[in-house]
Amino acid sequence: MNLHGRPRGPCRSARHEGPPASRGHALAVAAAAASLLVVLAATGALAAGPAAGSAAGSAAGSAAGSVAARADPLSDAPEGPRIVAAPPPPDAASYDEALRRWRDAADINAWIGARFAYDPARALLLSETQRQRNGRLPIAAPAEFFTHPTGVCVDLARFGVETLRAVDPAAKASYLMIEFDPVAVAGNTLRRHWLAAYEHQGRHYFFADSKRPGFVAGPYASTREFIDEYAAWRGRRIVAFQERDSFERRLRAAAPQRQRTPQEGAAAAPPR
Fold first, then answer.
1. Beta bridge partner(s), residue 199
2. In 3D, which of 230, 238, 217, 236 has the Cα closest to residue 75?
3. Residue 13 above 80 pLDDT?
4. Nearest 5°: CA angle at 56, between 218 and 197?
5. Which terminus of the chain, N or C, has less C-beta within 10 A?
């Protein structure tokens, strides 16, 4: 379902290392993370760990009753009761087994709703402020995330996109990168947010969102329609968005160098 409860249609790597942080920096980040935890707890945005029970009805029905009417704009952490699909996804003891047993976005989404836990300390380490100071941090590969399903939006989006590409290539899974107006949390600038997107029968759907794990938004006629609705729900202005094939930063390709003619080479040669 989308944010207004419209029924959704059916939906059946290497790490990039940054430089190690110093002990003093790690303590500063830990203190900032503690401050963020206080903010999240005060606003009710800090979600509990994976729930043991499951909600009645379909995954979409569970989502419709669980998503908050208005989100906390200061955090990408989940809000409200945990969304757990019924029936649960097929059991899998490993990521390789999950790839053999899962069939579509519904299976992946149900697993996310039951297992994902948000990591506020990691959110600060991946903030724009910390990345400028210390470089890039690893983004969990899907197999690693399956074993330890804790992280932030980009970790979850990578799991959703790459897993859906493996089990259902026809869904055309991609990343949706959203750039909000920046907010400052404990001295760290937070701006970007990541989700997974896919298509079914020409309509657009969005899931693997750390703000509401276990929720599938859609169907939408376009990504723009979703963006307008999502900005209103998040309470933050979206200044830009991109549908991308990868979460990795795109590097500008160097312009090809033109081979010099013999005359140009002779003219450019230094005098003897």
1. 204
2. 236
3. no
4. 20
5. C
Contacts for 1 with CB less than 8 Å, ≥ 6 apart: 7, 8, 60, 61, 63, 64, 216, 217, 218
Q: How far is Cα 199 from Cα 225, in angstroms, rounded to an integer? A: 14
Q: Within 13 Å and on the Cβ side, how many CA atoms surround 166?
A: 19
Beta-bridge partners for 73: none
**Residue 177 and residue 240: Cα distance in Å, rounded?**
8
pLDDT at 239 over 90: yes
Pairwise CA distance, residues 42 & 194, whole Å: 25
* Paired sense of beta strands 188-200 and 174-185, if any: antiparallel
| Domain extents in the chain | 36-248
DSSP code of residue 170: G
Q: How far apart are CA 103 and CA 133, in angstroms?
A: 41
Q: Computed over its alpha carbons, how large is the radius of gyration of the chain?
A: 21
The string over 200-235, giving b where at least 16 C-beta atoms fall within 10 Å of a residue's C-beta and e elsewhere, is: beeebbbbbbbbbbbbbbbbbeebeebbeebbebbe
Q: What are phi and psi of 65, to 5 degrees?
A: -90, -5
- Tell me the pLDDT tens digit for each residue of 158-197: 999 999 999 999 999 999 999 999 888 778 778 899 999 9
Residue matched to tokens 């649960």: 88
Two structure tokens written together for 34? 């503690």
Rounded CA-CA distance 55/67 in Å is 13
Contact 130, 21 (CB under 8 A): no
Q: In what order do the strands lie in the sheet with 238-244?
A: 217-220, 203-207, 188-200, 174-185, 238-244
Q: Which residue(s) pair with 150 in the sheet?
A: 117
Neighbours of 137 (CB within 10 A): 17
